[in-house]
Design a protein that fits this description.
about 30% strand, 3 helices, three-stranded antiparallel β-sheet, seven-stranded antiparallel β-sheet, disordered N terminus, Glucose Permease (Domain IIA), mainly beta
Length: about 190
């Protein structure tokens, strides 16, 4: 059986290797924790399915308007370099688990999480654009590497006012980083306003 957080060829997920190279100027915290702990908290139910593929469904991880990947205000995300997905223009500062899975990484700057879910779906949740420069100010992860999470569980809190004060968009990127491993990836988003 494959280890959670590893791709089917036994290497770490593509997006994690990509980000480690410093493209976005940050490195993931690599310290291993012995075992896994289960985090239980009253769930916040995600609104709807935003990404669907043969491996499963990814629920909306933040309240707000869902936009196409191409409208995410970041060139790399919009171009699909890190996989298919959507953006969420948040209305509050809460990120919830979009499926049952395992936290594969928490960015050192606390603004991004990697999650592995059903069918080895590898998901990157990235809050804001260029928010790595905030060095964690305004971000509070509620999970750690290796934590088992449930859909709807709060996993990250973020301060939208601090993000705006730092002159960054607060769009949440929801990217299926190994989308090229699936034949049929369908993304759903809200109608333009």
């Amino acid at each position: 059986m494959e280890e959670m957080g590893k791709s089917s060829i036994g290497k770490e997920p593509f997006w994690r290797r990509f980000l480690k190279k410093g493209i976005f100027g940050f490195f993931f915290h690599e310290e291993k924790k012995p075992g896994q702990k289960i985090i239980k908290e009253e769930p916040v139910v995600p609104a709807k399915v935003v990404i669907r593929c043969e491996a499963g469904e990814i629920l909306q991880p933040a309240n707000g308007r869902v936009i196409p990947r191409k409208e995410i205000p970041d060139e790399e995300f919009a171009a699909g370099i890190l996989g298919e997905g959507v953006g969420v223009e948040p209305v509050d500062g809460v990120l919830v688990a979009p499926f049952d899975g395992v936290v594969s990484s928490v960015a050192e700057a606390k603004h991004a999480l990697g999650i592995v879910g059903p069918g080895d779906m590898e998901l990157l949740l990235h809050v804001g654009v260029d928010t790595v420069t905030m060095n964690g100010d305004g971000f509070k992860p509620l999970v750690e590497d290796g934590d088992i999470i449930e859909a709807g569980q709060k996993i990250l809190l973020f301060d939208r006012e601090k993000i705006r004060a730092a002159h960054h968009p607060d769009t949440v990127a929801v990217l299926l980083t190994n989308s090229d491993h699936f034949k049929h990836v369908v993304c759903s988003y809200d109608a333009p306003q």
